[in-house]
Amino acid sequence: MAVSLQQKRLEELRLQLNEHCHRYYVLDDPLISDGEYDRLFQELIAIEEKYPELVTSDSPSQRVGGAALEKFEQVEHRLPMLSLENAFDDQDLYSFEDRLLRFLLTTERFPYMAEPKLDGLAVELVYEDGVLIRGSTRGNGMIGEDITSQLRTVHSIPLRLKLPDLPRLEVRGEVFMDRSGLEKLNQQRADDGEPLFANPRNAAAGSLRQLDPKITAQRPLRFFVYGVAEPGDTGCRNQQELLQFLATLGLPVNPLVSLCPDIGAVIARFAELSRLRHNLAYEIDGMVVKVNDFTLQTRLGAKARAPRWAIACKFPATQATTQIVQVDFQVGRTGAVTPVALLTPVDVGGVMVSRATLHNNDEILRKDLHIGDTVLIQRAGDVIPEIVKAIPEKRNSSAEPVTFPKDCPVCSHPLLKPEGEAITRCVNPHCPAQRLRSIVHFCSKAGLDIEGLGKKSVEQLFDLKLIKDLPDIFRLQREDLAGLEGWGEKSAENALAGVRAAKEPSLTRFLAALGIRFVGEVTAGLLERSYKSLERLLTVTREELLEVEGLGEQAANSIVEYFSDPSVLEMMRAFHDVGVRPQALEQSGGNLLLSGEVLLFTGSLKKLSRTEAKKLVKEHGGEVASGITQKLTCLVVGEKPGSKLKKAEEKGKKILTEDEFLQVLDGQLKI
Ligand SMILES: NC(=O)c1ccc[n+]([C@@H]2O[C@H](COP(=O)([O-])OP(=O)(O)OC[C@H]3O[C@@H](n4cnc5c(N)ncnc54)[C@H](O)[C@@H]3O)[C@@H](O)[C@H]2O)c1
Ligand SMILES: [Zn+2]
Q1: Of 627, 653, 634, nearest to 596 (Cα)?
Q2: What does the record give as EC number (predicted)?
């Protein structure tokens, strides 16, 4: 009974896996994420290990890749190109070593080569007398596709080796596309309305398996070599020597390969690569671990689908499939309407994901998204998850397409999508959603950093109409707050103290807090230095702004537009009425940034002379100390600081670099 149930499941898994392999290897257009494929595959292996009698020769566990496309000439590999077994954690690596030791009937341990596992496509290159004569895909391991002319267009593949007296060499390696290449290619495909590649592997495979090599030539493909068909022929004794040898032939070897003396070192290297991977120019999906010694490799041999002497240790998946439950349209601070998909929660590389940004209407249309769609989602680095594509094959026939609203979901004002722009906006200046977002921004760290007025509190006060617009923040009274749900005496006092402390911000911070489009901290800093007062900015012209070094046209237009709006002018008056006084560098009368601070400089300063530095301290209300005294509060260190730094550190004084000192004066940093 149990066996027949398992047999049924096996048949189901084989059918599914074979279908997925076809989509992935032959069509370069997978329906599910690699992680999910791997899970199904592991389930299959587990059942087959328990019931070896149920293993059939057509099981995906016994086969490599997919069939060669018929549009290409077929190439028979002299020696099969195999796949790799997978490991998913440290335990799997220990078990791998156990299996090796048992197979070799030894307890003596040996070194391994650890190589980044590039997420690309395996190819074989045949060189005769040092000349590239053929290149092919892995195909089903025995028979691949002849893509010689396509491979010739890949710049990092040498057409000639540096040692021409080798009669024949069959090298194997990975063709891949780096992140920026894939991004550009997908951007271009998006512009052309073509479907995007789900991952670098599909992009590399899709680019190489083009009948017209001219198309391949336009694709940013790269190549790293990682082995040869018959290592014995090269005279090398191990993988490390082989990689060095291949490099001397002019073949590119990944510089991150690393020889590990034992499996513990392999595990440490895996952890290291897991950290490094996000900073690499290309995507890797794991690390390939190979027994270094070729004599041992030969003794270990291969199984049907993969060699015994190597294993691929995979990183946790960062793609997954799930369903779109609903789409929310959120109105941002600049009125931009962002569609956000609410998803059935799913684990993506260890993080539960339940929302994904859909960017804009063009993206929705291009991906042809419907409510209820099964979608492939991914998380890249730490960015917000995004939908790679929908899987229309899994769509319910009655599913409704996702439609962008015509009117603002909050204020019902008609939405506007300017010609040639991707973003749809609510342009109603009184739209409550925008106002709320801008109040949240004003109080946040990117704005005036008002303690006690975080996002949740601001939303609550906005809902209660206690804050309707920015100046209202400064009108809050203790009796407004204390007694509200979630507020006590203490939190009310805390918020009011935060508000009081924010009344004299630097002009830079104030401008950045207003959330004018294209005016962040840096541009705000430029404005403060150039105009030195808010009043002056209210009447500035576009031409004047364009003369400010570093200030672009978009920012100039946006600033003029902002300050010419009568409702903005009214708001500025209201700010003044409630006692808000932005302080510019040279008029910082009452609120001196360095008042109470006693500073000393040491080492050589790069941007300021000593005299200038001391003058600045005094202008900002600070004092200059004569040495590392009791009174000293802060030491500013230039290059080659000497003994004062150590002394100041010992005494627990604050230490600033020259740049930090300048940031303090700009109001961007607090001592
Ligand atoms: N999403 C899907 O529907 C689907 C379907 C089939 C397969 N897949 C994915 O493909 C995997 C199986 O593919 P596979 O058979 O190509 O195996 P694999 O990608 O797990 O490992 C073998 C391959 O690793 C590559 N490789 C990269 N760097 C290497 C190095 N330094 N040394 C040796 N090889 C290196 C080679 O191309 C080699 O062929 C699955 O685990 C799954 O992730 C996904
Ligand atoms: Zn609106």
Answers
A1: 634
A2: 6.5.1.2
